[in-house]
Specification:
Length: 156
């Protein structure tokens, strides 16, 4: 009977609930960041800002601000990884899953895969940013010193 430092028990209910939670965090905070961006430029809110690949672009101020909202959202989601996933080894898995489901959502919304290079660049950069920062935060928590001798010392 060998003991493991961090044994991992297969729990599909936990994994699915964490995926759903991370998707909720992703879209909730992306909506908040987009609302903040829209208030800066007095723009109308719509689902196009989240799911349409034509909105993300370097040419317009709205496109650049939308890109900024996606980058800020990746930072927020990295905090979500730190608070709710708490395992550095799983950060990349959950990050790719969140962005994969976002790509599927964009595919359904637009009726075809996103064709703009700017959409792919923004999402790959956000994926890398979210995974690296989330993993860094989780590793900092995992590597904290574990107090071994917490009881009172006895005089011998």
């Amino acid at each position: 009977m060998a003991s493991h430092f961090r044994s991992y028990i297969w729990d599909p209910v936990l994994i699915v609930s964490q995926i759903v939670l991370m998707q909720c965090i992703y879209y909730s905070f992306l909506g908040l960041w987009m609302a903040g961006v829209d208030s800066l430029v007095q723009s109308n809110r719509s689902l196009d800002q989240i799911f349409s690949y034509q909105v993300l672009g370097f040419a317009t101020i709205q496109g650049r601000l939308s890109m900024m909202a996606f980058v800020l959202n990746s930072l927020t989601c990295a905090l979500g990884l730190w608070f709710f996933i708490r395992r550095g080894k799983q950060c990349l898995d959950f990050t790719v899953t969140v962005h994969f489901f976002h790509m599927i959502g964009c595919w359904i919304y637009n009726a075809h895969l996103p064709a703009a290079l700017s959409w792919w660049l923004v999402n790959v950069a956000c994926m890398a940013l979210m995974a690296v920062i989330g993993e860094y935060l989780c590793m900092q928590t995992e590597l904290r010193a574990i107090p071994v001798n917490t009881g009172p010392k006895s005089n011998l």
